[in-house]
Design goal:
The chain is α/β, with parallel strands linked by helices and 253 residues long. The protein is built from eleven helices and eight strands. It is globular, with a radius of gyration of 17 Å. It binds phosphoenolpyruvate.
Length: 253
């Protein structure tokens, strides 16, 4: 199980420090669950220092696909490594929608992340109109295949997928456990096809989209749901800790 908090464009430095300290205290030690927080770039260095001594890992929310150079405003994989990042979220639907990120670009970013030994959390998910048109499986399949072009892994722990139906992100509307399990099973079969049986099963597939302490248990109980990518609820330490607890219970069951 992996539970990762995506803080998005929230929290200045003092607030990020405070939330990190609260998250460390609230979560304590986990046995079956890896935990990560993904603060804004400017908060990474300080939050990494506060995570010292805890097993909570640090992640970034995006990065550039090239090593370095004249790309004003961008952040490289090496920079993320240098401030202690372990994960990087790539292809979040907000990046796809508001910043024009394509599957092809996301694949280049994922390759770059791997080159620097950052674990990419590659996000996929259909829009509401695509689900209403019953096209979700085809849309997500294309995103998975194209966003993972050129990726090869030596173990399932080198890659994470996150299924985030766009209509469920930040809307309070969660996909039903059946809808989630159906899509995760589809993604699992694609991962097995792309990376073989052993690694395909070992890759964590997270669900994201209005996960809260009240619905996390029923989502994490499904066999192909290996944790969650948490937006809004990750901004409150107690809520986030409660979601981590649900992951721990699901893994122990
Ligand atoms: C997200 O943006 O990754 C997300 C899942 O957000 P929320 O939990 O707020 O829906």
């Amino acid at each position: 199980m992996l539970v990762a908090g995506n803080w998005k464009m929230n929290l200045d430095l003092p607030a990020a420090r405070q939330l990190t300290a609260n998250v460390v205290t609230s979560i304590g030690k986990t046995v079956h669950t890896k935990v990560a927080i993904c603060p804004p770039f400017v908060d990474l260095d300080a939050t990494f220092n506060l995570l010292h001594g805890s097993e909570i890992r640090l992640g970034a929310q995006n990065m550039h696909e090239l090593d370095s150079g004249a790309y004003t405003g961008e952040i490289s994989a090496a920079m993320l490594k240098s401030v202690g990042c372990h994960y990087v979220i790539l292809g979040h639907s907000e990046r796809r929608e508001y910043f024009g990120e394509t599957n092809e670009l996301i694949a280049r970013k994922a390759q770059q992340a791997q080159k620097y030994r950052l674990i990419p959390i590659v996000c996929v998910g259909e829009m509401l109109a695509q689900r209403d048109g019953d096209r979700q499986n085809a849309v997500v399949e294309e995103q998975v295949r194209q966003s993972l072009q050129g990726i090869s892994i030596a173990s399932g722990s080198e890659l994470v997928l996150a299924y985030e139906p766009v209509w469920a992100i930040g809307t309070g509307r969660t996909a039903s456990p059946d809808q989630v399990e159906e899509m995760h099973t589809h993604i699992r079969s694609l991962l097995i096809e792309l990376f073989g049986q052993k690694m395909g099963y070992a890759i964590d597939i997270l669900y994201g989209g209005s996960v809260k302490s009240s619905n996390a248990s029923e989502l994490f109980a499904r066999s192909n749901v290996d944790g969650g990518l948490i937006g809004g609820a990750a901004l409150n330490a107690e809520d986030f800790a409660s979601i981590v607890k649900s992951a721990e219970s699901a893994a122990a069951a």
